[in-house]
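If your schedule permits, I should be very grateful for your opinion on a structural question. Kindly check, if you would, that the fold set down in the tokens agrees with what the sequence suggests. Thank you for your consideration; the sequence and its tokens are set out here:
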Amino acid sequence: MFTDLISLITNKIILSLLDSAYLSVGASNPWQLSFQDPATPIMEGIIFFHNDLMVFILAICIFVLWMLLRCIDLFNYSNTEADLNSELKGTKNLTKGSFSQLYINRLYSKGTIHNTVLEVVWTVVPALVLMVIAIPSFALLYSIEEFIEPSLTVKCTGHQWYWCYEYSNCKKEEIAEYIDGHKFESYMVPTEDLAESGQLRLLEVDKRLVLPTKTHIQVSVTAADVLHCWAVPSLGIKIDACPGRINQTTIFLKRSGTFYGQCSELCGVNHGFMPIVVRALPMYDFMMSEYMDHIIRTVDES
């Protein structure tokens, strides 16, 4: 009873601290074609790079389509047959079959059959396009791999079929003693247990990973049994969880919200039932949330 009362008070306090901007949801929508709204600089860079690439892709597709249609128009059977009949008029001692082969040979032999300038152009231009694409691509890859001294470390461990999270190395002295070493497991909420309105089927979990915004966070990902993958599209993260190995990345949340992801590596029969939910809060709200969670854990342990 006392635990339920504290949990209710905690929820009321957190909800009172949140406004509508905090409640933005990072999840896919039906018939969605574009990316989810970005919440990190990395995801913003991925979207910008995608938009830049679409300019080149559109131009190349238009040029190739024009070439195909032009070839179809020049070499279609009706045009060739009409030209053949006109050429046969007044020609003696040649059958239509033998003249057809001569005409086709002449057709393929006339025009541009060798042009050094043209060959240089169609070799150099694609190379230049690739070089232009490579510059922002390398910058984006470098930013993804760049490591900045974190203010908080979160270890994500994949199991069959749930995630386990552990906070450590918190640089905020106000909550370091309450959050360091805190470990919990996150399971998917079954469809029949989705009581609250707005909860997403196959994406909601019983315990969300709460992270602060405007803070450099180190994410260490590993697995306890088989290969998993910790992927959250809105954060621009997709990192493999390998048994016996720790992969690391950093994130910097620019805005508050709730961001959904899933395991993106085939890991067994329940692969599709181990979602990821990250809840981003401003630092003050994050501190209040973790402090109240610590009180609840203390009461439960006592």
